[in-house]
Amino acid sequence: MGSYSNTISKQEPTLALFYCQNVPNSSERDRQALELKYGKCIRLFPIPCSGRLEPLHLLKALEEIADTAYVITCPEDNCRYFEGNVRARKRVERTKEIISDIGLEPERVGIIVGTKEYPKGLATLAGEILDIASQLRISPVFVTDG
Amino acid sequence: MITAKQKPFQEIKGMIAPYKKILVLGCGSCVAECAAGGEKETAMLASALRMAAKKNSEEVLVQEKTLDRQCVKDFVIELDGIIDQYDAILSLGC
Fold this sequence. Notes:
The complex is a heterodimer of chains A (146) and B (94). Chain A is α/β, with parallel strands linked by helices and 146 residues long.
């Protein structure tokens, strides 16, 4: 932590995906299957509620391992802790402000809110988010050698 | 009760531009209550400064620490053993 700026050679963009454990089809087995499928392109972080997410989690992900960081929350008015997903949305907005100040694209951080009518599983959402994330280049935070 | 608001990021970055080894120092009292300089905000600012440095290919060391209070000597002396490692301390205290 806090090391000198170092040069890291990064070939593929990486997505850090935080998700509420209430997301459909998001068991440990599902998580392992996704990591096996996508390899280094995705890093998955289950959390007990999206309200547990702090801006620091997203910032550390962008600083150390990921080019984009997203969070998946429960549908509106459907958080079992009532307002966890509302808090997550505000924290994602705050993180966007911070990375904009740094000079990074605010699109590197995002939030996906589940829907009650047509709930999607973790694998489906992860695929959709990876498609969005692939439109961004590798983060300038990860400088290539030479 | 003292209230505080964190300075804009670009202003802070300009202040520390001449230095290569920086300790971002938070405080767990008034500024923490105001969400301006507590442990969370200190970590966030340090992370942002490190990313900004990496993005600009700058060789800068940024580390963080939070004291319970920056206005009480008993807590400030916790820095005695580490302060010489840094060129500057960026204090988020009031």
